[in-house]
From TrEMBL:
BP-aspect Gene Ontology terms: methylation
UniProt protein name: [LSU ribosomal protein L11P]-lysine N-methyltransferase
GO cellular component: ribosome
Record bears the keyword Metal-binding: no
Alphabetized GO MF terms: protein methyltransferase activity
SUPFAM superfamilies documented for this protein: S-adenosyl-L-methionine-dependent methyltransferases
Keywords for the protein's UniProt record, in alphabetical order: Methyltransferase, Ribonucleoprotein, Ribosomal protein, Transferase
Organism: Thermocrinis minervae
Pfam families for the chain: PrmA
Protein origin, superkingdom: Bacteria
Lineage: Bacteria, Pseudomonadati, Aquificota, Aquificia, Aquificales
């Protein structure tokens, strides 16, 4: 068991973004609240900044986190690199709802599944599905800029993924797994069009608070909830098709 130092910092949003831009750090975002970002780095402290917390963590692996050296990023073999261009589309991986979606996707996607990503944004969930072994992936969004960014990100990751400008009602095919990370108000409008598209697994995220999670569960017909995941107040629910 290896022991590592964890240094926790807190900065205003603007200073945090500036730090990322200037130093291109490998770090863990812990929370974003009231205009501030709480984050951590491992092994060595940041120069010129005082950590708000410092403590030790244990890991069985010999390398704990990716390490930036010059223009290189050294990534442990047990991690799956997911490369994103910093464009204008939603979905960088920092938001808790995206992280919840990724965790549920990792748990329920099986190799060979055909996957539909509704509201694909930057394409982060579609790309993750490709990394996890999906045989075919379609990402849709109503925003043309998002679709353009998603295509670019898929190429950066060496994946062949189909992206198109479309709404759920435009899709005529069915998929083993359908994932949608959307606002609750959007689910109220399009959920009826999403449900028929899943043959087995349905993952709905972007839900803020227990109330929205409970409401979405009550709205879904033909599926049973099998997992509820939350992070910093954001919820995602995985469903299994009945029968």
């Amino acid at each position: 068991m290896k022991v590592y130092k964890k240094f926790v910092y807190e900065l205003p949003n603007e200073d945090f973004e500036k730090l990322l831009y200037e130093k291109n750090l490998s770090l863990e975002v812990i929370s974003r609240d009231q205009g501030k970002v709480r984050f951590a780095v491992y092994q060595e402290p940041l120069e010129g900044l005082d950590p708000v917390e410092t403590y030790e963590v244990k890991s069985k692996n010999s390398v704990f986190l990716p390490k930036k050296v010059g223009s290189f990023l050294i990534v442990p073999s047990w991690l799956k690199p997911l490369i994103l261009h910093p464009g204008s589309a939603f979905g960088t991986g920092y938001h808790p709802s995206t992280q919840v979606s990724l965790l549920l996707l990792e748990r329920f996607l099986k190799k060979g599944y055909r996957v539909l990503d509704v509201g694909c944004g930057s394409g982060i969930l579609s790309i993750a599905a490709g990394k996890l072994g999906a045989s075919e992936i379609l990402g849709i969004d109503i925003d043309r800029v998002s679709v353009k960014e998603a295509k670019k990100n898929a190429r950066l990751n060496g994946l062949k993924i189909s992206f198109r400008v479309a709404e759920p009602k435009d899709i005529k095919d069915q998929f083993h797994l359908v994932i949608a990370n959307l606002e609750f108000s959007i689910f109220e409008k399009v959920l009826k069009d999403i449900l028929p598209l899943s043959l087995r697994i349905l993952i709905l995220a972007g839900l803020y608070g227990k109330d929205e999670a409970k409401r979405i569960i009550s709205m879904v017909e033909g599926f049973k909830p099998v997992k509820v995941k939350s992070l910093k107040g954001w919820y995602g629910v995985a469903f299994l098709k009945k029968g």
